[in-house]
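SAMPLE LOG
Freezer: B-3
Tube label: C17
Construct: single chain, 212 aa
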Amino acid sequence: MRDYTYYLFDADGTLFDTTELIYQCFVYSLDKFGNIKKPKEEIIKSIGRTLRSQFEIHLGPLSDEQYDEIQKEHMRFQLSIYKDYLKSFPGVTPGLATLKKRNKRLAIVTSRKINSLSVFLKETEIFDYFEVIITPDETEKHKPEPEPALKAMSLLGAVSEQSIFIGDSLFDIQCGKNAGIDTAFMTYSKTKSDQLEVKPTYLIKSLEDLCV
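STRUCTURE (predicted):
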């Protein structure tokens, strides 16, 4: 793949594996707040959206008060069990280290809130590689809309021709494409690349592939 200057990364499913963690948390919260049980594949399918969007897919429309109560308990539970499930993907740390040694500019564009994101980045020892972090609190619109990627690019001073978005979901690829930049899809994703409605610029097996 060609060389870029600005690298925008999704977090969950790209930098660290949280699929089982997210699934277990939704099992807990859907049971607690809706007495609902959903198939695992249905829960995983919505990963990549904002937390509120995911809950409204499973529970229906929520008032701000309802959502606030649910998300607080959901995240309390998640932070109580994350060490049992959180793990870094092979190649992430060496890939990021190589990019930084080459003076590349790195950002995170994620649907995860900053509180748990910071915990997970520090736990996997990759927090310091990123100079910009865009969470749902920084934008009005969220992935797959282009605004999160464009906000990260603006803060980095990036130009589209030298920027790439790396992610593991259709929402990531759509966000990058809608922002007018190249994209790379992680093939260790739970989503198969041939199921993507929007085709990425590259398919990569590891973050180290970005350095070839």
